[in-house]
Amino acid sequence: MQNKLGLLGHIKYPDDLRRLTVDQLPEVCEELRRDIVEELSVNPGHLASSLGVAEITVALHYVYNTPEDRIVWDVGHQAYGHKILTGRREQFCTNRKLHGIMPFPSPAESEYDTFVCGHASNSISAALGMAVAEKSREKNGFLSGGENAAPRHVVAVIGDGAMSGGLAFEGLNNVSSTPNDMLIILNDNNMSIDRSVGGMKQYLLQLNTNETYNALRFRAGNWLRSKGYLADDRRNGLIRLGNALKSAISHQQNIFEGLNIRYFGPYNGHNVKELVRILRQLKDMKGPKLLHLHTVKGKGYEPAEKAATIWHAPGKFDPATGRIIKNEAPDMPPKYQDVFGHTLLELARQNPKIVGVTPAMPTGCSMNIMMEAMPDRTFDVGIAEGHAVTFSGGMAKDGLLPFCNIYSAFAQRAYDNIIHDVAIMRLPVVICLDRAGLVGEDGATHHGAFDMAALRPIPNLTIASPMDECELRRLMYTAQLPDKGTFVIRYPRGHGVRTDWHCPLEEITVGTGRKLKEGRDVAVLTIGPTGNTAAKAIDEVERSHAGVSIAHYDMRFLKPLDGHILGEVASRFSRVVTVEDGSRSGGLGSAVLEWMADHGHCPRIIRLGLPDCFVEHGTVSELQHITGIDKEGIEKAIETILVTQHKEGSITKIQQG
């Protein structure tokens, strides 16, 4: 393997990288790219982003003394090269696999991973906290290694559209007013997952600061500091004066220097030797700094360069030809997201008030279907989930009917906006939570585990989850009818269960579930697609236990609950099993327990759902088995409650299968 990898085969940790000459670094970058391409061709993951930052990754670990120096990555799908260079090359084949290395950087896995970065835009705030902690260490004399220890450097690497997130600007605002020496690297590839949008994208494309000016200013600053003319109390004033002069000369205002953050660039982010030179210059410079680098997402692999959105996470592919390998059968049911996309366009053609909103995921959620047909009625707001919700609220307040589609895990970032800017006013916003439940290999930061438990206490919300694609279409139709208020529809990642999904659009009465199967011994209550798994489990238990009869109800709505169904269950059954693909604490099972207690009923209830821990990464089927919500787990729960019932004399005979 070492011969195949060349220089990379001799690099286990960054200390090994630092033993090389600068002239050897371009070869390391090329080998790093080849290793990522070859591995991801058979073990799918996030490809294009990590290819685009190969030079940045190598230069950072070459110049900085990691892990003592801190590199804080933003949108962690950029960090595959970082993982390979920091002791995980031999384990990289386990990336995103059950019990393998994590899909995104995490301090729980490596001391080189300084912060969790599954979601975008948190790097500047986290890095500023570390930089302030370093200032405190210096001031109070508890530098690790004693008095002569070198100060710890802190670098934030933000890119792939993450600068459009509101948290990034909150961090920048604080960076400008808090003493720190941190470096912000802006990886500007004009992309998030789909093409970047908005004014910040245009600003970064047009931004140009003279390199000669920056070099002269840097040398002049060092000279003034050495002569004692540039004390900290004068520094900000001189920076403001310099910024004003530069703006006047160039007829251009720099937003970063307007915040008193020194700006350098833009530079070519793929010239690793030049990056090393620049980073060495900036490394010990005092005060906050921003280095603006232009990169190409997918750099070094032609198919990814030409179609970065497709190659963001392409699945398995042939590295030689660039052919993406599809294992889907032609008669496979469609993905839920595609049913959403086609249904949204169908509804929008019928209802002129409907508009679509998504935070940087039009392709991922299939809103691109409506976007292509009705570009003036669809809005990609960038990586800004909170803004997406409030923006939708503003449109709804003045007569439009937004369908705001956000991945469930990312909607956590918009919790206050849902409450304050939509629910309180009961605005007609349809919040579609894609990727609800377990999502698989992306792991704890991406599972849609908490939406039902988090949203259930909020007044004025309707919360529903379809069992199949036809139910999704009917719920979407219902949500856009008059006087429905704020309507939340959650559905999973991946394929559905029906090929005959294009059903008529019909209203579903809000707060009503369905009795899918009669029974007399145990009632199983499900919500969402877990109902399909439960139906198979019920069938297996009944076949294995002669004479046992199990009722099955699809609750469909978490809020409001179907009181008629619950009343029927309470009057007929002393044993109940609830199944959901969300947090067991606070979700459907908890809601059923509360309803029973409030109405004076006390059946024995087994609640199946996600446990009170962060579920790791693995395939969806593996994780469903671990968490007990697969067919086997549901069967076991039903049999457990049947045995308890038998012991208490409620069932006279159970034949073990």
Please give a structural write-up.
Mg(2+) binds at residues 160, 189. Homodimer. Belongs to the transketolase family. DXPS subfamily. Thiamine diphosphate binds at residues 77, 118-120, 161-162, 189, 301, 385. The structure is a single chain. By secondary structure, the chain is α/β, with parallel strands linked by helices. Helices cover 41% and strands 14% of the residues. It contains 26 helices and 17 strands. The strands form three sheets. The protein has a seven-stranded mixed β-sheet with strand order 7-6-8-9-11-10-15, sandwiched between helices. It has a five-stranded parallel β-sheet with strand order 1-2-3-5-4, with helices on both faces. Strand 2, helix 8 and strand 3 (183-188) form a beta-alpha-beta unit. Helix 3 (25-42) crosses helix 5 (54-63), helix 7 runs parallel beside helix 8 and helix 22 crosses helix 26 (631-647). The chain is globular and about 90 Å long. Residues 650-657 have low confidence and may be disordered.
Please specify the SSE layout and strand pairing.
Layout: H1 2-5, H2 14-17, H3 25-42, H4 48-52, H5 54-63, E1 70-73, H6 80-88, H7 123-140, E2 154-159, H8 166-177, E3 183-188, H9 199-206, H10 211-226, H11 232-250, H12 255-258, E4 262-268, H13 272-282, E5 289-294, H14 302-306, H15 336-350, E6 354-358, H16 368-373, E7 378-380, H17 385-397, E8 401-407, H18 408-411, H19 415-423, E9 430-434, H20 451-455, E10 461-464, H21 469-479, E11 486-490, E12 514-517, E13 522-526, H22 530-544, E14 550-554, E15 557-559, H23 563-572, E16 575-583, H24 588-598, E17 604-610, H25 620-627, H26 631-647
Parallel strand pairs: 1-2, 2-3, 3-5, 4-5, 6-7, 6-8, 8-9, 9-11, 10-11, 13-14, 13-16, 16-17
Antiparallel strand pairs: 10-15, 12-14
